[in-house]
Write a structure and sequence with these properties.
This protein starts with a helix and ends in an 11-residue tail after the last strand. Helices cover 15% and strands 50% of the residues. The chain has a nine-stranded antiparallel beta sheet with strand order 6-5-4-3-2-1-9-8-7, covered by helices on one side. Strand 4 and strand 5 (77-82) form a beta hairpin. The chain is an alpha+beta fold.
Length: 125
């Protein structure tokens, strides 16, 4: 059976997505507050409990999009990527619940998400 080029591309894409998903690690219990859909000025960050990360950032010189597994946490910071190709997200304010809104600062951008209390999360405010 002969497959068309479009079908081959779709199959390769599905295979790559499956391989990427297999590389992700579940979020550790002490980092569950990171899980969710975060929004800030020119940035969106989504982290799933299974360890998948979707990121979008708009800057003056263009936008950046990333969809990859979370590789590891290093203190409050976390690395996202596949194999030796990764990027570090620098967290200067880890997730904290203040007056019903989760807040976190990543790569210098203040992010928020709706206030659903995560198990074991720090409460302040």
């Amino acid at each position: 059976m002969m497959l068309g080029l479009g079908r081959v591309r779709r199959l390769v894409g599905v295979g790559l997505l499956a391989a990427l998903a297999a590389c992700s690690q579940p979020i550790p219990a002490d980092k569950r507050a990171y899980v969710g859909d975060w929004r800030g000025a020119g940035m969106q960050l989504s982290i799933t409990a299974e360890g998948s990360v979707r990121y979008w950032r708009q800057r003056d010189d263009g936008s950046t999009t990333l969809e990859a597994p979370l590789q590891r946490f290093d203190g409050d910071h976390f690395d996202v990527g596949v194999g030796p190709i990764s990027t570090r997200f620098v967290v200067t304010q880890p997730p904290v619940l203040i007056e019903g809104v989760w807040r976190m600062t990543v790569d210098g951008v203040a992010l928020t998400r709706p206030g659903v209390t995560a198990p074991g999360a720090a409460l302040r405010g």
